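Format is chain and fold; as here:
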Amino acid sequence: MPAATAARSDPLSATPDARSLLLDTASMLMREGDTVDVSLSELSKQSGLNSALVKYYFGNKAGLLVALIEREWEAIVRSVDALLAKDVDPETKLRIHMAGVVDNFFRTPYTHRLLMRLIRESEPVEAQRLADSYLKPLLDAYDALIGEGVAKGVFRPVDPQLFYFTVIGAADRFFSARLVLKHCSDTDVLDEALRDRYRAHLNEFVVAGILVAR
């Protein structure tokens, strides 16, 4: 009997990495569909796993979405912490971060929109937990990075919260803009070439806006 068929007949007979496969498949479906939701039937079809495994591993679809956002944002928070610890100047740190922001949105464009949806739809305690775990660390990182740059005479003083909205908002909007591309240009494909162009564009705009005039 094929593995996928066996998994459908007995949800608990899935392979040890079935949980990761469900998360990877949900991620793929959101990327390709440009959405922050996923159909359990499509998830089952694309993964070859019984949809009952969603309940087994995550409790329900909402639990699956939370697990996915936790996986993605924990990686983002770790990378930002590692960047702040680097022994390089603030401008270089900012340029590395800007490139990383664009690369993350290119790879998983749903991350910010999904986190906002989960915070909006969750009970207050869970909403606060998500914000404290994934939004506040990024805001704190911007506060630290900007503060370091200001102290060294490299950056102008800017509001870290507004800086967050400028950077993350711009990238989030761009990587959810397929309809704009489709109707206003000759493509709706956000490929690596377009990613690279946008990475350079956004980097120069943001860095130019925060650097002290020389």
